Amino acid sequence: MRVVGQIVLRGYRLAIRLRAKVFSLMISGAFARFGENTVLVLPLRVSGESRIELGDRVFIGAGSWLQTLPDDGNDSVAISIGSGSSIAGYCVISAVRRVSLEENVLLARNVYISDHIHQYDDPNVPVLAQGVGQIRAVTIGRGAWLGQNVVICPGVTIGKGAVIGANSVVKDDVPDFAVAVGAPARVIRTFQHPSVADD
User: For residue 74, what is the domain's CATH number?
Assistant: First the structure.
């Protein structure tokens, strides 16, 4: 039975990989840029793909949502995900103007990144109908790691090589090579690896 189970699992993994690669090839032309060996795993929710660019070797796990919203006729790229970045499942990236993940960024599951918030000032109008505001660009630096359930608020820059602990809500910038945790997140430690310090 063990051998049969291993054969079935290998077949399953192969089928999932093949489906993801075929799907990715079929949709690649709809994006502003779709790099080589980039894979998006179904199920996936995508809107505004003409304003999304994906570098080479990007992985986006199942259940994720990439969304760009209209910006008064601005057709420039609103979501940019750098080469080598890996996004676990059920992550949300939503942008009106600009969310940028640089190269080799790692997102754990359920990360939420947005360059805007929903308006909620009018109690007589459902929040959904009030539009968005506080539109400010977000940048996640090269080689950063965002833990599970992290929320990145509008206007935040996460430095290169930074680590954001699980369940953190980041409202302020985090410097390069820093560890930040909490809600709101605070820097608890900084470090610098000699091989990347001068990059």
Answer: 2.160.10.10
